[in-house]
Amino acid sequence: MTPNGELKVGGKYRDEDKTNDVANRRFKAADDPTFLMSQGLASLDISSFYFGRYPQGPNASLDAATNFFDANRGAFREDPNAEHADNDPNNYDVKEKVAALYAKNTNRFGRVRLEEGVRVEHTSGTYDGFAIQTGRRRQLALDVAQQPNQDLH
C-alpha cells in the first residue's frame, strides 16, 4: 500500500489596535417627585416569543422613564463615583501583534488518514487599562511587549 500524502504550509500576521471607551452616566434620586411604575408601563405584544410559552408585559417603558427624567432633572444628581466604578474597568487600549506559521502533512493509507503538524505562534502587545481602588482612579500600564508569548501547538 503506497501512502497518498498532502503537505500544507501557511502563515498569518495580524497587527491590531483595540480600544474600548465606555462613558455611561449614573444618577441618583435626590428629591421628589416620585416616579411610579404605574406611570411608565408599556404593552409588549410578541406572541411569537418562545412560541408563546412565556407571555410578556406589561413592561417598564424606557420612553416614559426618559421623559420623566428629562422633565425633572433637578430631582437627580450625577454620581461620578458610580460612573468611575462602572466605566473605568471597561476602558482599555490594546496594541497587539501576532505572527503564526504552520506546517501540516496528511497521509492516507487506504481508509486510514494520519495527520501531523506543527504551529508556531508569537504574540507581543501593549495593554493599558484602569483599575478601581478605594474610590480613586489609578492607571495600570501593563507593558508586556518585552515579554512575548510563544506557544507551540
Distance between the termini: 30 Å
Task: List segments where confidence is low: pLDDT < 50 over at least 5 consecutive residues.
Answer: 135-153
Helical coverage, percent range: 10-25%
Radius of gyration: 28 Å
| Assembly category | single chain
- The number of helical segments is 2
**Number of DSSP E strands:** 9
Structural class: mainly beta
SSE string: EEEEHEHEEEE
Tally of separate domains: 2
Shape: elongated
In terms of DSSP E residues, the strand content is: over 45%
Q: Describe the biggest sheet?
A: 5 strands, antiparallel
Report mean pLDDT, rounded to a whole number. 82
Summarize the structure.
12% of the residues lie in helices and 52% in strands. By secondary structure, the protein is mostly beta strands. The two termini are 30 Å apart.
Which terms would index this structure?
153 residues; mainly beta; 5-stranded antiparallel β-sheet; two-stranded antiparallel sheet; 2 helices; elongated; disordered C terminus
